[in-house]
Amino acid sequence: TTSTTTLVLPVPSAAVSTPERRRTTRHYLVCEPRHFAVEYSINPWMDPSAPLDTDLALAQWRALVEVYEALGHRVSRIAPVPGLPDMVFAANSGTVVRGRVLGARFRAPQRAAEADHFRTWFQANGHPRVVMPTRVNEAEGDFAWTGDLLLAGTGFRTDPAAHAEAQEVLGVPVVSLSLVDPAYYHLDTALVVLSEATPDHRAHIAYYPEAFSAGSREALRTLYPDAILATPEDAACLGLNAVSDGHNVVVPREATHLSARLTESGYTVHPVDISELRKSGGGPKCCTLEIRA
Ligand code: ARG
Fold first, then answer.
1. Which residues catalyse the reaction (predicted)?
2. Closest ligand 1 atom to the C-alpha of 186?
3. DSSP helix/strand/coil, 259
4. Contact between residue 92 and residue 106 where contact means Cβ atoms under 8 Å apart
5. Each residue of 187-200: b (16+ CB within 10 Å) or e?
6. Distance between CA 171 and CA 167 in Å, rounded?
């Protein structure tokens, strides 16, 4: 007697090891670079004598916002203020986690006045209980929410004491990380959260190890063994200053290695040109403050 049995073998697929990269709708606060300029230098990218095309900066920023809108995200706008050329970098002005808002306190006097404009915006837009920090705190420039932890950078801008303050105000666990390369003066120039932690998966991040102290590097390796490690070239175009909704990642177009790794890992990459904003040391993420309900 002959009988045939068809054996159905499990097909090894990427899905076994790679979690589904699910998008969630985000709410972003942005500030049009109508008064953008490089008039002073508070980081190594800024050269006030270098040529800057402010019309192009505006066009590049508008294209960035169009990507967010095309992806279905909610975008709110704060009015730019003359005399505050760095106000376009909205990420530096607030950390919003689970509806709680911690404002900013800038290190450079040239940016100090920005903090109050954002405080006023939050108060007028559903967040009356903004807490203003007592220590230097450049908000999402140095704080990255992973879904279960707040990664916190220090070394150039945000005071380490601001990390404890953030934990107290926001009520979430904070992990301090030391930045050591002046070119990567904010955490968001060296690390990006690609997908947030879920009950089944740890958060997925990408970072540039050389931007961190040896101990911080070890801590990142322990927390995120499956992270994407960026190359010096990825970092040097501010490729890590990217914005992810869990599936779509908006990335400076020069970051080709990082983009390839993102695609392999199941993300959809949206390249953007940020040549003019980069002359101030900023990229997509710096322009984007995330409001987490
Ligand atoms: N020129 C600005 C500064 O030095 C750039 C800020 C960029 N923002 C950021 N989140 N990394 O403060």
1. 186, 286
2. 11
3. helix
4. yes
5. bbbbbbbbbbeeee
6. 5
CA distance 223 to 220: 5
Task: Answer whether 234's CB lies under 8 Å from 189's CB.
Answer: no
Please give the distance, rounded to the nearest whole angstrom, from the Cα atom of residue 67 to the centre of ligand 1: 21
Q: With contact defined as beta carbons under 8 Å apart, do 156 and 108 qualify?
A: no
Among residues 31, 237, 286, 287, the one annotated as catalytic is: 286
How far is 38 from 48, CA to CA, in rounded Å?
A: 5
Contact 238, 282 (CB under 8 A): yes
ipTM for the complex? 0.96
Determine which one of 31, 73, 163, 186 is catalytic.
186
Residues with beta carbon inside 6 Å of ligand 1?
42-43, 46, 86, 89, 91-92, 111, 141, 186, 188-189, 280-282, 286
pLDDT tens across 175-226, in order? 999 999 999 999 999 999 999 999 989 999 999 999 999 999 999 999 999 9
**Joined tokens for residue 252:** 């400076």
Query: Which two tokens mark 96?
Result: 């919003």
Helix (H) or strand (E) holding 150: strand 150-154
**Which protein residue's CA is at the shortest distance from atom 6 of ligand 1?**
282
Could you tell me which of 111, 142, 91, 107 has the C-alpha nearest to residue 39?
111
- Helices (H) and strands (E) in the chain — how many of each? 8, 14
pTM, rounded to two decimals: 0.93
Tell me the per-residue pLDDT of 227-281, one tens digit each, with 9 for 90 and over.
999 999 999 999 999 999 999 999 999 999 999 999 999 999 999 999 999 999 9
Contact assessment for residue 46 and residue 279, using Cβ atoms and an 8 Å cutoff: yes
Edge-to-edge strands, sheet with 289-290: 74-77, 27-30, 289-290
